């Protein structure tokens, strides 16, 4: 029995990345603050073997910019979220490429910026929080962004023959 469990765990661990699929989930801004900053976002995600969704990249729906994000960050980031926030997944924004612009837009004046989001689920609204680290060593909440579900893209926005399509494929 023990060998069976070990074999099953090893198979699951190696099959997880092989079974993961890339998906593009689109969201529209649901309030004025969010619309002023982003208008909408598309998340490049991986769906794992057991259905969990992890985010790899934020893509601006309107400006066609994108920033790589990586899961993880200091626990202090969660400590500055507004009271009642249920979002717990911390992602660091890559300091390369469009990540610099995204960080500056979300937390002007901060040295480093993180995005905190809740569980990503198809067909559900999404809330993101931007938290920055300032030169005095303090973590500060910068902005809360709220999005409504729009749909799922078949391919990344702006690539291939679907570039002129006005809306994503809803699933």
Explain what this protein looks like in three dimensions:
By secondary structure, this protein is α+β, with helices and mostly antiparallel strands. Helix content is 22%, strand content 38%. It contains 4 helices and 8 strands, in the order H-E-H-E-E-E-H-E-H-E-E-E. It has helices at residues 2-19, 32-37, 76-79, 98-106, and strands at 21-29, 40-47, 53-60, 66-71, 89-93, 112-117, 126-133, 139-153. Strands 1-2-3-4-5-6-7-8 form an 8-stranded antiparallel β-barrel.
Low-confidence stretches: 161-166
* Major beta sheet, strand line-up: 1-2-3-4-5-6-7-8
Order of helices and strands: HEHEEEHEHEEE
Radius of gyration: 17 Å
Distance between the termini: 40 Å
Beta content comes to 35-45%
Q: Biggest β-sheet: count, sense, barrel?
A: 8 strands, antiparallel, barrel
Number of strands: 8
> Assembly type of the shown chains?
single chain
The outline comes out as globular
């Amino acid at each position: 029995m023990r060998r069976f469990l070990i074999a099953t765990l090893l198979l699951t661990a190696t099959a997880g990345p092989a079974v993961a699929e890339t998906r593009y989930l689109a969201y529209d801004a649901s309030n004025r603050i969010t619309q002023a900053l982003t208008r909408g976002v598309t998340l490049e995600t991986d769906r794992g073997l057991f259905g969990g969704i992890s985010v790899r990249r934020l893509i601006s729906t309107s400006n066609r910019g994108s920033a790589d994000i990586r899961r993880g960050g200091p626990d202090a980031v969660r400590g500055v979220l507004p009271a009642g926030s249920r979002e717990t997944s911390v992602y660091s924004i890559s300091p390369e490429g469009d990540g610099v612009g995204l960080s500056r837009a979300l937390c002007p004046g901060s040295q480093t910026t993180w995005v905190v989001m809740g569980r990503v689920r198809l067909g559900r609204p999404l809330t993101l929080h931007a938290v920055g680290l300032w030169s005095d060593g303090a973590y500060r909440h910068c902005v809360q962004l709220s999005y409504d579900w729009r749909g799922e893209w078949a391919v990344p926005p702006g690539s291939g023959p679907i570039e002129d399509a006005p809306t994503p494929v809803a699933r």
